[in-house]
Amino acid sequence: MPDLAQAREKMVERQIAARGIHDAPLLDAMRAVPREEFIPHHLIEFAYEDSPLPIEADQTISQPYIVALMIEAAGVAPGDKVLEIGAGSGYAAAIMGKVADHVVSIERHHELAALAAERMRRLGYANVRIVEGDGTEGCPAEAPFDAIIAAASGPSVPDILKAQLKIGGRLVMPLGEPHSVQTLVKVTRRGEDDYDMENLGGVRFVPLIGAYGWQDHRAETAPKTLPQMIADAAEPLPNFDHPDFSALFDRYADAKVILLGEASHGTSEFYKARAAISRRLIERHGFNIVAVEADWPDAATIDRYVRRRPARRGEERAFQRFPTWMWRNTDVDDFIRWLRTHNDGRVPEDKVSFRGLDLYNMNGSIRAVIGYLEDVDPEAAQLARERYNCLMPYSRNPAAYGAMAITEGYARCEDEVVRMLKELQQSRAEYVGIDDGDEFLDAAANARLVKNAEAYYRVMYRGAAESWNLRDTHMFETLCQLLDAKGPDAKAIVWAHNSHIGNAAATEMGVVREELNIGQLCREKFGKQAVLLGFGTHSGTVAAADDWDAPMKVKTVRPALGGSYEDMSHKAGLSRFLLDLRGLGAELKAALDEPRLQRFIGVIYRPETERWSHYSEAVMPRQFDGWVWFDETNAVKPLPGEQKPGEDETYPFGL
Question: What SMART domains would the database entry show (predicted)?
Answer without folding.
Answer: rADc
